[in-house]
Design a protein that fits this description.
- The protein has about 180 residues and is mainly α.
- The chain has one domain.
- The longest helix is centred in the C-terminal third of the chain and has 51 residues.
- The chain is flat and about 100 Å long.
- The termini are far apart.
Length: about 180
């Protein structure tokens, strides 16, 4: 019996070691795919776009002094830097997500595609796509804001109606007098 337990233990340990090797190999494939996709270059390109979008959204009043504008630019640089640190932290976990989601064959195919001429062309053109996409996203957001505000107002009105209904006391039933009919 002890020999069987020993063999089962060895088998379990061996399987675990094999799984770790397979996971390490899959993580390496995931890292290769991410490198082939040039995620780091995409992030660097995004930094400028994030700062540009933030500057458009948070505009200073026309009366701002040059010193205020300079301080604001420094602030926006810090905001962009903070955003990029957070994004890079997220991306640092991308390899384990890819390894969990994609099969080894899929990771190899991703890497293969992005190392082809077509894959490299796609990556090179991504900034153009993003530049064209940003105004559309801003337009979508601008069009959606009044609709969201209307929905929020409707919800608020419904909640007030529900609260008023809950606060209105329900009338107590009138006092019931005992019946004068004989009991069977």
């Amino acid at each position: 019996m002890k020999k069987i337990l020993f063999l089962v233990s060895l088998l379990a340990l061996g399987t675990g070691a094999f799984a770790e090797e397979a996971n390490a190999a899959k993580l390496a494939l995931a890292r290769e795919a991410i490198a082939a996709m040039q995620v780091d270059k995409m992030l660097d390109g995004m930094a400028g776009q994030i700062k540009k979008m933030a500057m458009q959204r948070a505009q200073l009043p026309a009366t701002a002094t040059p010193a205020q504008r300079e301080r604001f630019d420094v602030f926006m640089g810090r905001v962009t830097e903070l955003a990029m640190v957070e994004v890079k932290t997220m991306v640092s976990k991308l390899d384990s997500i890819y390894a969990e989601v994609y099969s080894e064959a899929e990771l190899k195919a991703i890497t293969s595609f992005f190392t082809t001429t077509e894959g490299k062309s796609m990556l090179a053109k991504q900034p153009q796509v993003m530049t064209r996409l940003m105004p559309l996203m801003q337009e979508l957001q601008a069009g959606m804001m009044p609709k969201l505000q209307k929905l929020a107002q409707e919800l608020e009105a419904e909640m007030k109606t529900d609260a008023a209904a809950a606060a209105t006391p329900t009338p107590e039933p009138a006092v019931t007098l005992p019946s004068t009919e004989p009991k069977p």
